[in-house]
Amino acid sequence: MNNGRAVHFEDHETFRRMTKRCLKLSSDKRHEVVGEAADLAGAFAVLHEIETGNLKANVVILDGNLTSGTTTGEDARKITQYINDRNIPVRVVGMGGRAMKEVGVEVDVDITKEGLEKNYEALADALNNLEEPNDPPA
Q: Distance between CA atoms of 124 and 13, rounded to whole angstroms?
């Protein structure tokens, strides 16, 4: 992917800031965060903006749990289901406390928060290696 325009769904502001900083430092300004949501309702609102063309984004960076006290990945499942049901043309990068596959969520690439903490270039590297999403079927 040449120009990742990402939305980040993460309930912890610290990780949202860290993600922006990591992309800024490691992607030669090729990739950027263009939207955020800290909860499930906000994530659906952002996805609706992408779907209607009001927000130009091609990547979703996804935490598994946006609802306080949950650890099941249910929020990530709902978000990926929404994306798939509506054929929203985005790639999905898992960046939760653990790998998305551990909670049954399918993503294009999974780097985890720990992976980003260990290597600040991990997210930019992941985006560089993703193919551009296809446009939705007409």
A: 19
Sheet holding 32-37, edge to edge: 32-37, 5-9, 59-62, 91-94, 109-110
5-97: CATH number: 3.40.50.2300
The first and second tokens of residue 80, run together, are: 């990926």
Cβ-in-10-Å burial (0-12, 13-18, 19+) of 76 comes to buried
- The tokens describing 96, both together, are 């939760």
The one-digit pLDDT tens for each residue of the chain (138 residues) are 989 999 999 999 999 999 998 888 887 778 999 999 999 999 999 999 999 999 999 999 999 999 888 888 999 999 999 999 999 999 999 999 888 999 999 999 999 888 888 888 899 999 999 999 976 544
Q: Cβ of 36: how many Cβ atoms within 10 Å? A: 18
Would the pTM count as exceeding 0.90? yes
- Rounded to whole angstroms, how far apart are CA atoms 124 and 27? 5
Distance between CA atoms of 138 and 135, rounded to whole angstroms? 9
